[in-house]
């Protein structure tokens, strides 16, 4: 089985899907990660951008990712890219990988990059013909999911829980590689916060650790 995780920025895939990635890779599935954006100067320092990219490769490799694809669209400036060009590039990745399952961010995330990636991804995974992903999930991203204006549209509503009890440590090890992104607890992007969310999602369904997803579509 081929699985594609679409991440607006490096580390989003670890925060939202890291335990599931490791679990599925261990089971023999082919897991691909598409990182959509790259920081550009003067907004981001080039040294930090390169560090983050190196960390992303290392972290994905630790989890068993088969290939990490970088699209290099400008971070926090996606609205400057013509929508048709952006949509076409995401669709190109989906067509190349031809995944059975796709994981995308939550549409209600605070960050505009996340919202635009979701919109482009949903265009790319439209159920046309017979050759399209049969399962599409939304994942939550600490520091983005839950920080937007609280309403029914922005609310993340879990419908699927993945048991990551056996892979939570791998997820933590992978996240620890991201020295450029981590902060001490109680920061949202901290090891303590990631562990706490995994325990909370797990306890919701009587598991020690879990990742929660919202099922967007499943075709059987």
Automatic annotation (TrEMBL):
Pfam families: PIG-L (PF02585)
Gene Ontology molecular function: any one: hydrolase activity, acting on carbon-nitrogen (but not peptide) bonds, in linear amides
Protein name: PIG-L family deacetylase
SUPFAM superfamilies (UniProt xref): LmbE-like
Tree of life domain: Bacteria
């Amino acid at each position: 089985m081929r699985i594609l995780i679409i991440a607006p920025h490096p580390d989003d895939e670890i925060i939202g899907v890291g335990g599931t990635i490791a679990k599925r890779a261990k089971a023999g599935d082919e897991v691909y990660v598409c990182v959509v954006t790259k920081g550009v100067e003067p907004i981001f320092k080039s040294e930090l951008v390169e560090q983050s990219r190196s960390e992303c490769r290392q972290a994905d490799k630790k989890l068993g990712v088969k290939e990490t694809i970088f699209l290099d669209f400008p971070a926090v400036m996606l609205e400057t890219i013509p929508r048709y060009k952006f949509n076409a590039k995401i669709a190109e990745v989906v067509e190349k990988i031809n995944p059975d399952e796709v994981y995308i961010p939550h549409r209600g995330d605070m960050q505009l990059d996340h919202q635009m990636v979701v919109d482009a991804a949903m265009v790319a995974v439209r159920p046309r013909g017979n050759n399209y992903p049969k399962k599409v999930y939304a994942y939550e991203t600490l520091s983005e999911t839950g920080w937007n204006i609280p309403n029914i549209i922005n609310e993340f509503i879990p419908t699927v829980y993945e048991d990551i009890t056996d892979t939570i440590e791998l997820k933590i090890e992978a996240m620890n590689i991201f020295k450029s992104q981590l902060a001490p607890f109680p920061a949202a992007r901290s090891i303590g916060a990631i562990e706490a969310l995994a325990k909370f999602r797990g306890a919701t369904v009587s598991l020690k650790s879990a990742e929660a997803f919202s099922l967007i579509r499943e075709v059987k």
